[in-house]
Amino acid sequence: MNVENKTIIISGASRGIGRATAMLLAQHGANVIVTARNADDLNELATEAIQGSVRGKIVAVSGDVANEDDMNAVVKMAKDQFNRIDVVINNAGYGVFKPVEEISVEEWDKLMATNVKGTFLLTKAALPILKAQGSGHIVVVASDVAKRTFAGGSLYTASKYAQEAFMGALRKEVRPFGIKVTGVYSGLVDSYFHEKGHGHETSKHYLQVGDMAESMLFLVSRPAHVVIDEFMIHPLEQEY
């Protein structure tokens, strides 16, 4: 589980899976650049890391994953501060669950901008550095609904299928440069993602954000010659 001195970028890191992952990786000695739109939450995370005397560092850079300039700035900060980038974790995302005729054009555009365009922009910004290094690891936190559909999930599942296709093509492009691509396909997680919020009684047997963070640590700490292309994880109570 060695991530000592690795430089890791995490989007959507202000809470939930992203926040838990950032803290765990920093505790194991990684230098983590966290980004999200909520600057206050990011700064609170960075302060918590300092007060907890973690082995690594957490650097907060607020920004919108759907904004190209913001993502370029995040990558530049990582490069300027630590002189390299080892891992990019595309974690930012959210869901809208409605029958098709009730989804507005604005809802469609905003969700696709975050879930799909955001993955593209952060990855694109980091790729020249990873290619020049001849190494790197791109992780996309998708969902098990990148593999299945359900009623009321047309918009969300479309975004996750798009991430799946993006990863598939990207994987073929970058492997010759020594760059790994991993898709993470999780089932139900007790996080802020769900309408009832984190910690609700109905979610007590879901995966916890700590479970997801430990999974991320495992994935990004494999030896250089090992890549886990796809990682599917569910709570035992969820039928698959």
Automatic annotation (TrEMBL):
**What is stated as this protein's family in its record?**
Belongs to the short-chain dehydrogenases/reductases (SDR) family.
SUPFAM superfamilies tied to this protein? NAD(P)-binding Rossmann-fold domains
InterPro entries xref list: NAD(P)-bd_dom_sf, SDR_fam
Decide whether keyword Cell inner membrane is in the record.
Answer: no
Segments spanning the bilayer are none
- Record's protein name: SDR family oxidoreductase
Give any GO molecular function from the UniProt entry.
oxidoreductase activity, acting on the CH-OH group of donors, NAD or NADP as acceptor
Which keywords appear in this protein's UniProt record, sorted alphabetically?
Answer: Oxidoreductase
Organism the protein comes from: Spirosoma terrae
| Pfam families listed in its UniProt record | adh_short
